[in-house]
Automatic annotation (TrEMBL):
Coiled coil: none annotated. Keywords: Nitrogen fixation. PANTHER family: DINITROGENASE IRON-MOLYBDENUM COFACTOR PROTEIN-RELATED, IRON-MOLYBDENUM PROTEIN. Residues 14-104 form the Dinitrogenase iron-molybdenum cofactor biosynthesis domain. Pfam families: Nitro_FeMo-Co. This is Dinitrogenase iron-molybdenum cofactor biosynthesis domain-containing protein. The keyword tRNA-binding does not apply.
Length: 123
């Protein structure tokens, strides 16, 4: 499975998890096989104009992402990910990308629900 985690620069497994999906510095992509990390890479974030919240959704889906771990996200991108078949999990408060991935592998993260989403007024 390919997991995307919004990250603070410079990205990577030791990076802080970005507080909000749409306003992160970059994304860390992590390939997991048989419960273990086999590869990680950092890609730049995707700029989106006001109301263009689906651009980052397509950007990650086009790169084969099947799981997203996020702390904050608006309703439009959440619905976009679900339509693309990307499973979204709530990872707020987890310090590093590596810890977020480990929590997901261990089944400790809840699915991201509309209750977790932001109103989007700051976009």
């Amino acid at each position: 499975m390919k997991i995307a985690i919004p990250s603070v620069l410079p990205g990577g497994l030791e990076a802080q998890v970005g507080a909000h999906f749409g306003h992160c510095d970059c994304y860390t992509l992590v390939d997991v096989e048989d419960g273990a990390v086999v590869k990680s890479e950092v890609i730049p974030s995707c700029a989106h104009e006001h109301g263009g919240c689906l651009a980052p959704v397509n950007y990650l889906a086009d790169r084969g992402v099947t799981v997203l771990l996020a702390g904050g996200m608006g309703m439009r991108p959440l619905m976009g990910f679900l339509q693309e078949g990307v499973d979204v999990y709530y990872a707020a408060g987890i310090e590093t990308v590596e810890k977020a991935v480990a929590a997901h592998i261990a089944g400790e993260l809840p699915r991201f629900s509309p209750n977790h989403s932001c109103g989007g007024g700051h976009h």
